[in-house]
Design goal:
about 60% helix; Elongation Factor Tu (Ef-tu), domain 3; seven-stranded mixed barrel
Length: about 300
């Protein structure tokens, strides 16, 4: 009776261990009751690919990564995958590592390619790495990093120049400290004098303003009076011209005076013409004086 109990306990323990082993493998994604085919691919860098990551065809899971080994002879990595589905494909097919999510988790995709020789369990397929989002971001970040490095170098140079200028300014200030102190004292003294005489300065400015206003008023009054006198004189002249009793009015308004002046001008013109045509009639010039004797 005791031996039968121990046998039952041993059998129960074996069953539990089998269930535990199956459960662990099930959680890993392995199906112990399926016919698996193992294939291999060689990579220089697996980019973070780990065991138990899925192997897919067009997004459909057909297996998983079963093992990753380091080959010390060639310094490369050998990835073993277990294909659970019975899918025929050629040896030209590719096992490509790609980003399965935005966090950069790696998985394998079996890209089926046509070929004459079909792949069997134990064959080595072509391994490749797809350019994923994280790789592109890394490349872009690399170029941005180069620009930032150059910017930092330029900023460091600017800081060095500022430091040099600052040290130069400090040396100048130390060398001319006494003169600067004297200048500041003089400026303070002048400021105190101006502040103490601010009321007097305000009175002077007020007086100057009043004098300027007075001069402006006087000048305006004198100019106005002069313009008034000129206006009155012009008005008197115009009244004299318009008055027919005055000399200018008579000349302008009476036709007889204009006619007499016109006759005088005509007579003078005739006289000048006659003098020009008969000059001896009016001017008698003798060089030897004979004419005077004859006249006697």
């Amino acid at each position: 009776m005791k031996k039968s109990n121990e046998l039952l306990i041993g059998l129960f323990t074996c069953v539990l261990l089998a269930i535990l082993y199956w459960g662990v493998n099930f959680l890993k994604g392995e199906n112990l009751f399926s016919n698996k085919q193992f294939f291999y691919a060689v990579y220089d860098n697996v980019n973070g690919l780990t065991i138990s990551r899925p192997v897919t065809i067009n997004g459909f899971k057909v297996g998983q990564v079963s093992n990753i080994e380091f080959n010390s002879e060639n310094a490369d990595l050998i990835v073993q995958v277990a294909i659970e589905e019975e899918i025929p494909f050629s040896t030209n097919s590719i096992l490509e590592i790609y980003d399965s999510d935005i966090m950069g988790s790696k998985s394998l995709e079996l890209k089926v390619r046509p070929g004459n020789k079909m792949a069997n369990s134990g064959d080595t397929l072509i391994g490749s790495i797809a350019t994923g989002l994280t790789s592109e971001v890394s490349e872009q970040f690399g170029s941005v990093k180069v620009g930032l490095d150059q910017l930092i170098i330029s900023f460091d140079q600017v800081l060095k120049e500022i430091e040099i200028l600052s040290s130069t300014a400090n040396r100048l200030l130390l060398a001319n400290e006494n003169q600067l102190s004297t200048s500041m004292n003089n400026i303070e003294s002048v400021s105190n004098v101006i502040e103490s005489h601010s009321k007097s300065i305000d009175k002077i400015l007020l007086n100057l303003s009043e004098i300027t206003d007075s001069l402006s008023a006087i000048q305006y009054i004198s100019i106005s009076d002069h313009m008034l006198d000129v206006s009155q004189q012009l008005e008197f002249m115009l009244a004299s011209v318009n008055n027919t009793d005055g000399s200018i009015g008579k000349i302008i308004h009476q036709d007889s005076i204009y006619n007499n002046l016109q006759n005088v001008i005509n007579s003078m013109n005739h006289l000048l013409i006659d003098i020009q045509n008969n000059p001896k009639k009016y001017i008698n010039i003798s060089i030897w004086g004979n004419d005077k004797k004859n006249n006697k």
